[in-house]
Amino acid sequence: MLKTHTCGELRAEHAGQTVTLAGWVNRRRDQGGLIFIDLRDRWGITQVTIDQATAPDAHAIADQVRSEYVIQVTGTVRLRPAGMENPAMDTGEIEVEASAMVILNPAKTTPFLIYSDDKLDEALRLKYRYLDLRRQRMQRNIILRHRVVKYIRDFLDRKGFVEIETPILFKTTPEGARDYLVPSRVHPGQFYALPQSPQQLKQLLMVAGYERYFQIARCFRDEDQRGDRQPEFTQLDLEMSFVEREDIMALIEEMMTGIVEQVSDRQLVTKPFPRIKHHDALEKYGSDKPDLRYNLEWVDVSALAAASSFGVFQESVRAGNKVKAMRIPGGAAGQSNSQLKKLHQELEALARDKGAKGLAWLTPAEDPGGEPRGSIARFFSPEQAAALFAQLGAAPGDLILFVTDTPAIVYAVQDAIRRDVAERMGLADPRQIAFGWIIDFPLFEWNAEENRWDPSHHLFTAPMPEDLPLLDTDPGRARGQQYDLCCNGYEVAGGSIRIHRREVQEKIFGLIGLDLAVARERFGHMLEAFEYGTPPHGGIAPGIDRLVMLLAGEANIREVMAFPKSQQAADLMAGAPSPVEPKQLEELHISLLNNA
Residue 50, CB half-sphere, CA atoms under 13 Å: how many? Predict the structure, then answer.
């Protein structure tokens, strides 16, 4: 080894020892006859002093080094002089007095400072990702990801799971996003697909009798990018036999609790995880992945709103819509009329962006005998206003927002306004983790354009046992045995109990308009497998990238992936995607329509 210790392990008890360190020059400070170097490796930073009087050869070398040079230093550990300790560093009690130094590799001037946490252009960071990954923040994130995955593996091993790898080259199947296709040289004109998930294969492993399977699976989806998406991502893929919905939810809840409390430095604020019906989540939060770190909830006030003299509310309720209201505790406290009007304008612009025609506001009188303020205050009698405030639990200083429209628009506005208000008021504490289960999803969604039902989760999701008869009479009312895990406003896992009987699976195919002959061509291997003794089974797939992003307090999954793609799905470091040689295309029997 070229080092006896890491740059993060030396402490006061090592004083007097001769050690050898190796790493990168984080910073260099030249004070003439004395040079200070902060030497860095992934374990930490140690201050090295090089004194020209006692180590002239080492000092001459130290005079040449610059930031990011790779060097080796041999010297004696000593306590820093009294008053010169650095409590911000783990090694801040000591320094290494160098006696010898070797430059292992010089470095060009880097395009950005490695030791700085200043905001950098992301394209520059991705182009020089190998340098970006040297930064302490990125190393913390990547090491946190390692620890999360290790915890998962150890936890599931203790629970009797077997880790099994499934193919990357598989068959193209409809799973909600476009497949990445891989042409076959051996079978001209035919293609493999990169898996969007190992869905079929993990179910076949249940048929094969393994009962408890998991995999840290690489998955691929050709879809538009956003902050919590990447074309290739990693999920914990998990499947269990002879279980019901609650068994899987309890297992994942125990695992997630352990990850937060034993691996991260976050605070778990929902314990046990609440179970929220899908319909209730939409009604209260406007989202099926609500942020539960704060208690802002929307309430149906249609009856009181329709009784007011505000024509917009009256007409909307007559049309079958609801009027929803959200109380913001202290949202109007100390705010002048002009300040409240400005806030209202900003929030109303957000509501209009989601399709609403407007956003109303109201706040109770601050003084006894006073009158409420707001854009719709004059439309409520004192008695109606009092009843409204009582229903909402509103007190002086609170701000109440109102929206009405079709359900889809109202839900979108509820979610957007709730998130915006929480950010304005600092309610979404990034140090907190709030999980919640969303259950009782509808099994289908009606596709008016295609005049058929679409599966709300995926086509292998089993209906609730008591809802099986509804498949023949009223499919829109059937609920699926689906469960999503939300965390801080994101969906971090989704799963379901699967269909394990062929006749039920074929009935689902019919409802979603999938011709049985086509279904047999696409899924014949599964349908046949289901005839050889398939156990009841179910699973779930937590997203590793999103989970680690939240545990690291980041706003983008690219911050917890070693080599991510850009927002345009490009590898800026390697230059991918890229053209290929004509000979390669010829071998694959492919000709391009447009070579421009």
Answer: 25
| CA 351/CA 355 separation, integer angstroms | 7
Between CA 113 and CA 354 the distance in angstroms is 41
CA–CA separation, 335 and 255 (whole Å): 45
Top-tier CATH class for 12-105: mainly beta
Our CA dihedral for 247, 253, 259, 261, rounded to 10 degrees, sits at -130
Does the predicted model carry a pTM greater than 0.90?
yes
Amino acid at 459: L
Residue 333, token pair as written in the block = 């406290």
Q: Which pLDDT tens digit goes with each residue over 409-420?
A: 999 999 999 999
The residue whose two tokens read 């004194």 is: 51
- Alpha carbons 290 and 276: distance in angstroms, whole number: 10
| Domain coordinates in residue numbering, the chain | 12-105, 294-427
Q: What is the pLDDT of residues 240-282, one digit of tens each?
A: 999 999 999 999 999 999 999 999 999 999 999 999 999 999 9
Q: 294-427: which CATH number, 3.40.50.720, 3.10.50.40, 3.40.50.300, 3.30.1360.30? A: 3.30.1360.30
Separation of alpha carbons 347 and 313, rounded Å: 19
CA distance 420 to 35: 50
Give the C-alpha separation, 354 to 51, whole Å: 66
Inter-residue contact 585 to 579 (CB < 8 Å): no
